[in-house]
Amino acid sequence: MAGKFKTKPKPVKAGAIRRRNVAKILKAAEDVFARKGFSGASTAEIARLAGVPKPNLHYYFRTKQALYEALLDRILEMWVEAMEELHPGVDPADALSRYVARKIDLSRRLPGPSKLWAMEMLAGAPHIGAFLRGRVRELVAEKSALVETWIEQGRIAPIAPAHLFFVIWAATQTYADFSVQMTSVLNRKTLDADFYDEARATITTLVLNGLGLKR
Questions:
Q1: pLDDT tens digit sequence for 1-48
Q2: What are the structural domain ranges in the chain?
Q3: Which in 37, 53, 190, 195 has the greatest CB count within 10 A?
Q4: Phi and psi for 165 in degrees, rounded to 5?
């Protein structure tokens, strides 16, 4: 009689299935969009790479534009979360150091999103202009106000806050966008953890020293 009464597998909830499928679709979309851009990408290829039927893809994302915007929104959410290291009451040197570290870590672990964002910017941001004029503009204004407060309190050297953010973005995202340049120039096959630690330390030193800060 052993084995006669088998435990039935627990049913997978619809919400879990949805989350799993959406995650697979977004991952595949990231790869295809990063390689082919918006115009060259097709939902058929994305569905095939994600391992889901094309109708299922369109069940979650009705159009290619909707899928693209969802992917860019996810990228922005990661960067917004990293920028939350900068908040009132925090020490400027510690906050900026953590922010640079978060940005370098994202470039190391998730280079695809940064490359996709760069492609969109180089094309003139035809699909995410609203993102830039909305959430990104508001976020930069909010964090710039914090930096202005630090300046007024004499905690950092006077600088233009927006340019501070542009410099940090450029310095950290280049390790995702132009990694092939680095491997070629340095004659390396890969960029390892030590390489990214050096990058983080160097950028942090340059930023803090430029603001008259030390750790």
A1: 444 545 555 555 668 888 899 999 999 998 899 888 888 999 999 999
A2: 7-62, 72-210
A3: 195
A4: -70, -40
